[in-house]
């Protein structure tokens, strides 16, 4: 383990590390042009159009029992499956507890919608 991402994930169980990497794979599959920023002090892996908070699309935040897939503009996203959680002014998250959660089409739809929303912001 030599990357900043690996260093962050060493504090978690093999199951959580695996979920974090699988979540990362899904994000990069849907948003291949995403810029990845590892924030070691916050234990967050962020993805966006650039390295700024303004360009943030989503982030991975490992927890003890799950991985949070966070959306910086979650309150603006369509969520017909009602999988988004949170009460903040802007952000929302989805708890990824199993690999099956990552195959839920609603998760991919949120990532795609968040990407489209970030594109509208730049105009």
Taken together, the total number of domains comes to: 1
Fraction of residues in H or I helices: 25-40%
Second rung of CATH, namely the architecture: Alpha-Beta Complex
How many distinct helices? 4
Q: Would you tell me the structural class of the helices and strands?
A: alpha+beta
Shape: globular
Largest sheet: 5 strands, antiparallel
Mean pLDDT: 92
Quaternary class: single chain
What is the CATH third-level topology name? Aspartate Aminotransferase, domain 1
Number of E-type strands: 5
Task: List unreliable stretches of 5+ residues.
Answer: none
Task: Determine the N-to-C terminus distance.
Answer: 39 Å
* CATH class type: Alpha Beta
Instruction: Give the helices and strands as they follow along the chain.
Output: HHEEEEEHH
Rg from alpha-carbon coordinates? 13 Å
The percentage of residues in β strands lies in 15-25%
**Lateral arrangement of strands in the main beta sheet:** 1-2-3-4-5
Describe the model.
This protein has 123 residues and is α+β, with helices and mostly antiparallel strands. It has a single domain, classed as Alpha-Beta Complex (Aspartate Aminotransferase, domain 1). It has four helices and five strands; from the N terminus they run ααβββββαα. It has helices at residues 4-9, 14-30, 99-102, 105-122, and strands spanning 35-39, 44-48, 56-62, 67-71, 92-96. Strands 1-2-3-4-5 form a five-stranded antiparallel sheet. β1 and β2 (44-48) form a beta hairpin.
């Amino acid at each position: 383990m030599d990357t900043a991402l690996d260093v962050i994930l060493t504090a978690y169980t093999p199951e959580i590390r695996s979920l974090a990497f699988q979540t990362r794979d899904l994000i990069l599959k849907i948003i291949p042009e995403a810029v990845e920023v590892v924030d070691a002090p916050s234990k967050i892996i962020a993805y966006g159009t650039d390295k700024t908070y303004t360009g943030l699309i989503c982030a991975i935040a490992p927890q003890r029992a799950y991985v949070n897939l966070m959306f910086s503009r979650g309150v603006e996203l369509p969520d017909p499956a009602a999988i988004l959680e949170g009460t903040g002014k802007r952000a929302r998250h989805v708890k990824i507890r199993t690999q099956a959660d990552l195959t839920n089409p609603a998760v991919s739809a949120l990532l795609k919608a968040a990407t489209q929303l970030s594109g509208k912001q730049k105009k």
